[in-house]
Amino acid sequence: MMQRYFKFLSVPYRYARVRVNSREFKKFTQEKGFKSFLRVLIISLQVAFSYLFLPISFAFKMCGFRFVNVDLEQIGSIFYLDLLLREYALAGLNHKKIFVMAPSESLANRYLVKLYRSHCCLIHSQFLCLLLSPFFLSPVYREDSGVNFDTTNFEKPITNSIFQKFEKKIGKSLVEMPQEDISDCRKQLENLSIRDPIVCIHARDTGFYGIKSQNTRNADINNYFEASEYLIQKGYQVVRVGDPSATKLDKKFGSLGNKFFDYAHSELRSEMLDIYLMSQCVFFIGCTSGPSAIPMLFNTRSVNVNWYNPQSAFLSLEGDLCLLKKLVSIKKGENLSLPELLTPPFTKNLTMNELHQLGYLLEDNTPEEIRLAVTVAVEGLEIGCDGADYITDQHFCFGHRGRFLESKHLAGVRGEFSQDRDLYDKSKVQHLV
Fold it and tell me: What is the dihedral of CA 241, 245, 246, 247, to 10 degrees?
């Protein structure tokens, strides 16, 4: 009962580029219920107290204290926590003075968050979070929330700079799975004949959030059959990760035998195994969804397909691949080019209805296009790409720069974490598709 009260009184998360009360106010205007009204009133009072405590907040910040308020209920937002702690480490801040709001009852992945405990002080108690709310909501600590790392704003290369400097100074990821945990996870998988090398696949659908209108980032897992078949032919074990509410697989996946494992619907699922699979795989096939951020935290390569929108695709490790969804003009029947996709209004996360009003349809990648992206990644690994822009005219692989793969032609973009962000001449590689 007490936990329910504390949840109701809980401190709201700061969202990148979203005012702290805006989501609660929107919910109130939609529901117009007493509980919603009371929730908005409580949050307003918490914000008011944060202003009363401004002098103390300023003093704490001058002494090196940080109060981090990141939405850890969503697994992708743990990426913001990672970035902030990298930034603090580069600045030489004392990790004992960094307080992170992390109520145990609402964490997306408790195991992953706990890996950061040697880099900060995690506040798991709802009661303590409530007591410290004047600081977690203080405008003094507004930037200690990931607001500068908005993935839809690639004009400010803050993320780029942090990753480059951290890699140069530290030379490894901020967090790592303990070896004993890796051994434990490997043993659990081997009991089901699941052995390295492993490639993981995640396709977002409506199941997890249950909001049908949020479908622009969805993908159909059944379009990944050809890519999975190719990977198995190349000697890889393919593991589909996700939530139990995820779309069921077509019967054709049964022909892949035990080399394809539907972990999302298995009883083996655990928070530790989730992170093991996404961090220790050879590479991760993701989409525009929270899990796609996890491999980056551990310097694991990704092949992201069905990506929408292109702005956030710059948020990738050097050498990652990205296959964009297609925006097709209803009148002309032509795809927007990559440079056009990087101009307003297409830089925003427009809904299907908004796109249709503008005269465009959003199309998923075809099974053939997904297989192409995976083929390029595998061939790059087999060649042992050493950082050259192109090995030959026939190969496009992991290496010096992040990559985009675009429908109807292959295009390259230097990723957010490489030195620059330049478009490559598409004519050089058109013949690949």
Answer: 150
Which of 31-35, 318-322, 326-330, 344-348 has the least mean pLDDT? Answer: 31-35
Q: Tell me how far the alpha carbon of residue 344 is from its chain's centroid.
A: 23
| Pick from 163, 140, 137, 157: nearest CA to 15 | 137
Q: Is the pLDDT of residue 139 over 70?
A: yes
| Torsion region of 359: left, alpha or beta (phi above 0 gives left; psi -120 to 50 gives alpha) | left
- The H-or-E segment that residue 295 falls in is helix 294-297
Q: How far is the C-alpha of 46 from the C-alpha of 29, rounded, in Å?
A: 20
- Contact of 278 with 200, CB cutoff 8 Å: yes
Show Cβ contacts of residue 418 under 8 Å, excluding neighbours closer than 6 positions: 160, 318, 400, 401, 402
CA angle (118 as vertex; 113, 123 as ends), nearest 5 = 55
Confidence of residue 42 (pLDDT cuts 50, 70, 90): confident
Q: What is d(CA 401, CA 300) in angstroms, rounded to the nearest whole number? A: 15
Q: Please tell me whether residue 66 adopts helix, strand or coil conformation.
A: strand
Domains of the chain, first to last = 2-150 (no CATH), 179-432 (3.40.50)
DSSP, collapsed to helix, strand or coil, labels residue 98 as strand
pLDDT (tens digit, 9 = 90+) per residue, 242-272? 989 899 999 999 999 999 999 999 999 999 9
For the residues 209-234, what does the mean pLDDT come to?
Answer: 86
pLDDT at 389: 35
Q: With beta carbons less than 8 A apart as the criterion, state whether 409 and 429 touch.
A: yes
Are 297 and 286 spatial neighbours (Cβ–Cβ below 8 Å)?
no
> Using CA atoms, how far apart are residues 32 and 301, in angstroms rounded to an integer?
46
pLDDT value of residue 147: 63
Q: 405, 393 in Cβ contact below 8 A?
A: no
What was the pLDDT predicted at 99? 97
Cβ burial of 395 (10 Å; 0-12, 13-18, 19+) is middle
Predicted model pTM: 0.84
